[in-house]
């Protein structure tokens, strides 16, 4: 795993061994950031269930102004710190070692965020709770984009009545990315 593009291009990143994380492959990450290319420059980026931090680091490498990474697992948090040191992006990053969605109540001074990326464990299904907390805690910029990585067989019924609209779906071999924006007038 490596940084694909930008100021940290080709720097290898550390991952945590085991089945607790599913690092996004370079190919999928490149597709994702091709879709996000106009949203990333100078954005405030929120990486939830950050794992190794590779998505937030990629956003910073491509011009994001600041990234907040939320990860509760101690080994993953250490991998994030190691990767931030290796890429020299510590100054542009806040790492929060907390459980989600409760951690979102503590992020008020860090927002609002322009882009939110969420890659929760596939068996948890916390999307509806996280979307609600993002809205209720005033963490989203007016035209924010929320990207959710999920198993390709995951139903999207959590989007209904969430205050978000599904604007795009990108399906891969085993997973998918859902792109959501707040419904006009739904932010607090």
Features:
single chain, 188 residues, alpha/beta, Rossmann fold, seven-stranded mixed beta sheet
Radius of gyration: 15 Å
Helical run tally:
4
SSE order: HEHEHEEHEEE
- By CATH, the topology is Rossmann fold
- What would the principal axes of the Cα set say about the shape? globular
Largest sheet: 7 strands, mixed
Q: Can you tell me the CATH architecture?
A: 3-Layer(aba) Sandwich
Mean pLDDT: 90
N- to C-terminal distance: 38 Å
Explain what this protein looks like in three dimensions.
By secondary structure, this protein is an alpha/beta fold. It has a single domain, classed as Rossmann fold, CATH 3.40.50. The chain is 23% helix and 26% strand. The chain is built from 4 helices and 7 strands. A 7-stranded mixed β-sheet has the order 3-2-1-4-5-7-6. It starts with 25 loop residues before the first helix and ends in a 6-residue tail after the last strand. 39% of the residues are buried. The mean pLDDT is 90.
Outline of the structure:
The protein has four helices and seven strands; from the N terminus they run αβαβαββαβββ.
List the SSEs and their pairings.
Layout: H1 26-36, E1 44-48, H2 54-61, E2 66-70, H3 74-87, E3 93-96, E4 113-118, H4 127-136, E5 140-151, E6 164-171, E7 175-182
Parallel strand pairs: 1-2, 1-4, 2-3, 4-5
Antiparallel strand pairs: 5-7, 6-7
């Amino acid at each position: 795993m490596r940084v694909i593009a930008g100021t940290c291009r080709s720097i290898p990143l550390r991952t945590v061994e085991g089945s607790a994380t599913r690092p996004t492959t370079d190919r999928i990450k490149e597709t994702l950031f091709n879709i996000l290319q106009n949203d990333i420059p100078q954005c405030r980026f929120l990486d939830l269930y950050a794992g190794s931090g590779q998505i937030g680091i990629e956003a910073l490498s491509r011009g994001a102004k600041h990234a907040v990474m939320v990860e509760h697992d101690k080994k993953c948090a250490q991998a994030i710190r190691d990767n931030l040191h290796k890429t020299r992006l510590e100054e542009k990053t806040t790492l929060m070692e907390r459980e989600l969605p409760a951690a979102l109540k503590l992020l008020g001074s860090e927002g609002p965020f322009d882009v939110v990326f969420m890659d929760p464990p596939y068996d948890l299904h916390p999307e509806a709770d996280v979307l609600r907390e993002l809205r209720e805690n005033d963490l989203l910029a007016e035209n924010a984009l929320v990207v959710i990585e999920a198993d390709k067989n995951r139903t999207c019924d959590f989007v209904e009545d969430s205050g978000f609209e599904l604007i795009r779906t990108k399906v891969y071999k085993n997973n998918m990315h859902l792109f959501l924006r707040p419904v006009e007038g739904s932010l607090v």
